[in-house]
Amino acid sequence: MLRVGLTGGIGSGKSAVARRLAEHGAVVVDADQIAREVVEPGTPGLAEVVAEFGEEVLTPEGRLDRPRLGEIVFSDSARLARLNAIVHPRVAARTEELMAAAPVDAVVVYDVPLLVENDLGALYDVVVVVDLPEEEQVARVVANRGMPADQVRARIKAQATRERRRAAADVVIDNSGTPADLDRRVAELWADLSARA
Ligand SMILES: CC(C)(COP(=O)(O)OP(=O)(O)OC[C@H]1O[C@@H](n2cnc3c(N)ncnc32)[C@H](O)[C@@H]1O)[C@@H](O)C(=O)NCCC(=O)NCCS
Ligand SMILES: Nc1ncnc2c1ncn2[C@@H]1O[C@H](COP(=O)(O)OP(=O)(O)OP(=O)(O)O)[C@@H](O)[C@H]1O
């Protein structure tokens, strides 16, 4: 098994790279998706979040009100640290389970926004960083997810700098071009990863 850690700032294009790698044959494990699963209704994770942040972070249906919690934690680093302390150990445990279940000859790609922030590089054979200028990150998230620009900037501030992320990379994928450019870069990356596997 070749373990690949795939990271990048918000809106850099990690999920786009992960999707293309999956089409080439990689097994993809998605940290953002796991982070949602561990706070689904009825989970101990959601109970802990409510104990910490109060019922105001629940929707009327009893689900986590994610935009609301995002507004709270990305404007207060102490509260973000408390949320991370609840969610990250659960994500790490579930990630290990999913990676261990992959076939022995697989290229397993862990799509994780906070690889550098959480110092996870040593767990992976190859660290791939998807790189984009910050103002392009803001523009893409505003255009494609409708998130207000100031909230994108607040998340960027809670993340590692571009320089720090690039310094942790074995491979940097520049995603400042078109989606077709990205297709070509990912095809080259897949050839490289397959050769290492
Ligand atoms: C605050 C929450 C509820 C906001 O949910 P929302 O649906 O708006 O965003 P989503 O989870 O889809 O994340 C989108 C992007 O925001 C950024 N982001 C999310 N959490 C964090 C964080 N703790 N620190 C820095 N950036 C983050 C990442 O770039 C991520 O890809 C959610 O992000 C959360 O629970 N975060 C804490 C858990 C976490 O760190 N998840 C990231 C992967 S483990
Ligand atoms: N080369 C590109 N040109 C234009 N748009 C792109 C390009 N690559 C990705 N996008 C778009 O930019 C947005 C962000 O990409 P994506 O969701 O893959 O990023 P991400 O790094 O996974 O972000 P997040 O941290 O928010 O999960 C998406 O809507 C995607 O379709």
From TrEMBL:
Involved pathway(s): Cofactor biosynthesis; coenzyme A biosynthesis; CoA from (R)-pantothenate: step 5/5
Coiled-coil features, chain-numbered ranges: none
Residues that, per the record, bind ATP: 11-16
Protein name per its UniProtKB record: Dephospho-CoA kinase
Role noted for this protein: Catalyzes the phosphorylation of the 3'-hydroxyl group of dephosphocoenzyme A to form coenzyme A.
Origin: domain of life: Bacteria
SUPFAM superfamilies xref list: P-loop containing nucleoside triphosphate hydrolases
Listed InterPro entries: Depp_CoAkinase (IPR001977), P-loop_NTPase (IPR027417)
PROSITE patterns for the chain: DPCK
Organism of this sequence: Streptomonospora nanhaiensis
Any one of the GO CC terms: cytoplasm
NCBIfam families in the cross-refs: dephospho-CoA kinase (TIGR00152), PRK03333.1 (NF002879)
Uppermost EC category: transferase
Catalytic activity entry: 3'-dephospho-CoA + ATP = ADP + CoA + H(+)
GO molecular function annotations of the record: ATP binding; dephospho-CoA kinase activity
Subcellular location: Cytoplasm
Pfam families: CoaE
Main location: cytoplasm
Family, per entry: Belongs to the CoaE family.
Gene: coaE
